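A reminder before we start the practical. When you read a complex entry, don't treat the lines as separate problems. The point of joint prediction is that each chain is placed relative to the others, so the output describes one connected object in space. Small molecules and nucleic acid strands, if listed, are placed in the same frame. In the example below there are two entries. Take a minute to note the order of the lines before looking further.
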Amino acid sequence: MTDTTVQQLANDVRRGDRRALARALTLIERGGAPVRSLRRALAGYGVGSLVGITGAPGAGKSSLTTVIAQELRQRGMQVGIIAVDPSSPLSGGSLLGDRIRMYDLAGDSGVFIRSMANRGQYGGIAATTLDAAMLMRAAGFGMVLLETVGAGQSDVAVVDVADTVLLVEAPGMGDEVQSIKAGLLEVADVIVVSKSDRADAAATLQQLRALVRMQMDADDAWAVPVLPVSALRQTGVAALVDALINHAQWLQTHPATWRQQRRQLLSLQRALEAQLRDAVQQLPGWTSALAQLGQRDSDVLARQLLEEFVVSGFTKE
Amino acid sequence: MSDAPIRVLVAKPGLDGHDRGAKVIARALRDAGMDVIYTGIGQTPHMIVEAALQEDVEVVGLSILSGAHMTLLPKVAIQLREAGLGHCVIVAGGIIPAEDSALLMNQHGIDAIYGPGTNTDEIVAFIRATVATRRAAS
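Here is the predicted structure of the whole assembly.
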């Protein structure tokens, strides 16, 4: 694909052409040179904020994403949704089923849902979703919701690209220590206790509010709200959307808190890892390293590859 | 580009809730290394075409056991073309009589139809070969 065709595609995306957006998203997923051309063509366009939605499997992320999108639609906003699901570690394929729970959004031309497989890469998907969100913003979406794989560390990798991190906690998922261990509380800007129609939701809400008060820093002026939402009864949704919009506005006047700086650093580290890995896998030595897997220590093999990489000299594209 | 994973939409148009077949196919295609977007039951042709457009799939798989295949399948095929998605391979499965199958494939733009008991390897092979041809042509 030439630079001119990518430029044309970028223009079509900015005009809000949905087919062009879909095709551009595919280019982003496939990676390579067109991604950089798209980035250049679209840098600085679009204003919407990117909300990363994360939480344990079964916490209710897809249902919550759906009701947030419905509320935003009622307020006259266009919504982009990126739904990330895991790839099969064995076949590399994926079964992306978030659309089942987003049934109520199907056919609405003010909503654009894109399913993505995480390809098993912890860092790579973060860069891909950030680029995908850039496209959706350029296409004019007022808010982009990024729903992540509900599993531990890879989740943090995905949400560290978001402007606002929304953590979803289901009631009764264990004691409060579980939440601290998961490491997600630290990066959350807004916390939702989902399924708040359940009897045990009040206790979870109290525990989380106490935890959040405990970890508030003096220089961190954003007070993390902990909000009860029932996607089933459709209660608490308006307050949640208000909080998301408030946070986006708050960011305008508070550009760099420690939270964001840490997130940006993580993002840089992951981009570095991904690019280094891609570069090393282009080396002639990569195939022979693969052939020696299991016979030699992986630390030794990695060291050899790094040496080969340095000697080969880094070629600019 | 030619080795990028094949993106497939698997949907159940119409009102029947028999989704076992669709799920078996979705899983088989995933195990064959494809990215499968599964929409579930109760899909209108409009919803299917919207999803195919947003997901930029190369293959649309439709499972139908309600008997409404002569109405719904041509509608999906027409609306896909109208949305600029004429390049999509359309594969259908379900309880579809042989004479209807022939009509759907010869006159209504359905590329392949598979009945109960079809070996999933056969479907995987057909999708791989057809997508490879269309990618080479584009």
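Discuss with your neighbour: The two ends of chain B are 12 Å apart (CA to CA). What might explain this?
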